[in-house]
Amino acid sequence: MSRDEAIKLVDEHIKDERHRKHVLAVEAIMRALARRLGEDEELWGLVGLLHDLDYEETKDSMERHGLLAAEWLRGKLPDEALEAIKAHNELTGVTSDSRLANALRAADQASGLIVATALVMPSRKLKDVKVKSVLKKFKQKDFARGVNRDKIRLAEKLGLTLEEFFQIALEGMQAIAGELGL
């Protein structure tokens, strides 16, 4: 599947602008991680872009979130990618300890933490966010309470420190700051 084909699916299934920005941010992080880790940048980017494809359809039955997307994408992405998409939501009951699945879970949560960090900056811009600030906010349990910090820690299974992971994630998001409106 090409990125253009994936964007068409995103356009078709994700109408909420904030959620569209979220999947673009996760895609950017996944691509940056793949480059750093010597993985398939196209595949990892597509997984980030498409991981929430079914969210608007499944938001009232979250145990299906990820399963429906994987169904839609069967035959278009390799099984490893479908497993990562299913496993990013623990309510599906699907588990995977693959590098791709761990990267997706970490990137999904990191995107929210980084956006929240940017929004408390005076400029509200990603360009002004520093890794040190993200690490500080990560340690503040009351900040961005919806962010699952344990999932972010899965980056350590990729052989990265949290500081390295946040550096990669932040740079990935900063590269598309205009698309994110940040």
How does the SSE layout of this entry go?
Blueprint: H1 3-13, H2 17-37, H3 41-50, H4 55-58, H5 67-73, H6 79-87, H7 99-119, H8 131-139, H9 149-152, H10 162-174, H11 177-180
Helix pairs in contact: 1-3, 2-3, 2-7, 2-10, 3-6, 5-6, 6-7, 7-10, 8-10
Structural commentary:
The longest helix is centred in the first third of the chain and has 21 residues. It contains 11 helices and no strands. The mean pLDDT is about 100. The protein has one domain: Hypothetical protein af1432, CATH 1.10.3210. The chain has about 180 residues and is an all-alpha fold.
Give a brief description.
The chain has 182 residues and is mostly helical.
CATH architecture: Orthogonal Bundle
Q: Under CATH, the topology is which?
A: Hypothetical protein af1432
At the first level of CATH, the class is Mainly Alpha
**Helix segment count?**
11
Give the strand tally. Answer: 0
Q: Looking at the structure, what is the overall shape? A: globular
DSSP strand content = under 5%
> What is the domain tally?
1
Cα(first) to Cα(last) distance is 29 Å
What key attributes describe this structure?
62% helix, mainly alpha, 11 helices, Hypothetical protein af1432, 182 residues
